[in-house]
Amino acid sequence: MKKIEAIIRPERLTETIKGLKNIGVTGFTVSQVVGRGKQKDTQGVYRGKNYKVTLHPKVKLEIVLSDYMVERTIKNIVDSAQTGEDGDGKIYIYPIFEAYNIRTGKADFDIDELVDREG
After folding, report:
1. Cα separations (Å) of 109 from 20, 30, 67, 96, 113?
2. Which pLDDT band holds residue 112 (cuts at 50, 70, 90)?
3. Is 62 in contact with 5 (CB distance < 8 Å)?
4. Cα–Cα distance between 31 and 105 in angstroms, integer?
5. Is 87 helix (H, G, I), strand (E, B) or coil?
6. With 90 as the cut, is the pLDDT of residue 109 above it?
7. What is the mean pLDDT of the chain?
8. d(Cα 43, Cα 96) in Å, to the nearest integer?
9. Which of 13, 56, 69, 81 could form a cystine bridge with 65, CB 3.0-4.6 A?
């Protein structure tokens, strides 16, 4: 199993979720985050005063799935979230050694059991 963390633009979330559902990935976690990368600083105005925005709002998708689904999922996220501009985000892949179902307390070996295994 692997965990994919994708940091993307908030405005690309809906399109990315549609893409994931199209390939059978239905389980994921979404968090609002802020971060810093190559994206340039912007100016904001609050109560008539200008300020510099150095941390940009992003969305983090966390997906745990079987190894055979990783490449297809990464391609789908890139295709859905990419704008070609600085600040499109990053994708990180982590190994998952074990997963447990809290309801049953048992090891969860079929993390993506609803996914079409024929590929």
Report:
1. 21, 23, 12, 11, 9
2. low
3. yes
4. 25
5. coil
6. no
7. 88
8. 40
9. 69
